[in-house]
Amino acid sequence: MVRHPAKMPLRALLNVWPFQVRLEMARHASSFGVSGHFITPALFFGVSRPGRPCIHAGLFGTQGGWCPVLWIHPWVQFSVCSFSDTDFGSDASSHGMLLFCVGSCATFLLSASAHLLHNKNERAHYTLFCLDYIGISLYAYTYGMMTYYSSGNREFYESPLGGVFPVLHAAMAVNQTIWCILARVLYKSEQCFGRKCLMVGPCALGVLSSEIPLLFRLYGELHAGFTNSIHLYHLVFSVTNGLTFALHQPENSFPGRFDHWGSGHQWFHLSSVLCAAFQLVACHTDLVLQPRAVLSLAQPNVVAMWGSLATVIAANMVIYGSLYPTLMKRNGLW
């Protein structure tokens, strides 16, 4: 009789290589009535078993990804805005900060919903994580626009790239959603290398796109010295986000030892919260210190800002509506 990995002795688990663990868990998942979607490689004691309330499993199982950490984020965003000395009524550039607050809070609320409720059934799993990808797209877009309206320099705004950046960045943000959902359509395995590449690659390009105004400016300040070193902290956390999401460490190296605390995806969520907090504080500092003559070159317009966000949301929903039926049919749920 095959034993479920969650019931194997810890000593036996520690003697199994991570790739063997993945193989065995995928091979025997259906035998125990647990879908492979709800099993994370090298994590054994937090498996979402049938019959367990989905919210309980999301909060206390390995799939939760430290959901309480996710809820810290909206408070971080709004507290920074509430106590800032920015006049949102008369300064159009400052609406880039509000744009990011709305986009990032939506991102983390969608992410929290996905991690709390996805293990109810397979349909909920696919639906909620596809919406989570839209949230990630909104995060990248709104952060890029906040950077555009607060952190660029004169050379960037007067360059051809500065003129087309809003449209280019919107396209890159929507592109993330396309490939993240397509990765689920093309690959059924949750841990397939090809699926990871299709997700991480476009998301990395979206993050790089959002940093273009800042990188343009940092390059100009390379020899004179950085005027706002807080940006360096968020760049470090941006790299940490990618590494923790892609590598699944330390649990891959030490299977069974990080089931409830300390897994790579949990560190990813914590790093994301810290990254977003540093992003907001850094751009607010730029907004206070940057000459208004420079920021005015971005031609800030409140109606255009919020209209562009609505357009990106609409484009994401069209993509979701187009690919969702195909995803459901491929998995026998339509």
Q: In short, what is this structure?
A:
By secondary structure, this protein is mainly α. It has helices at residues 10-14, 18-28, 54-60, 67-82, 95-117, 122-150, 154-157, 160-186, 193-210, 212-220, 230-247, 264-289, 292-295, 302-330. The protein is globular and about 55 Å long.
How do the strands and helices of this protein lay out in sequence?
Layout: H1 10-14, H2 18-28, H3 54-60, H4 67-82, H5 95-117, H6 122-150, H7 154-157, H8 160-186, H9 193-210, H10 212-220, H11 230-247, H12 264-289, H13 292-295, H14 302-330
Structure notes:
By secondary structure, the protein is an all-alpha fold. The chain has one domain. The protein is 68% helix and 0% strand. It contains 14 helices and no strands. The radius of gyration is 21 Å and the shape is globular. The N terminus is likely disordered.
CA-CA gap between termini: 34 Å
C-alpha Rg, in Å? 21 Å
Task: Report strand %.
Answer: under 5%
As residue ranges, the low-confidence spans are: 1-32, 60-66
Properties at a glance:
single chain; 334 residues; disordered N terminus; globular
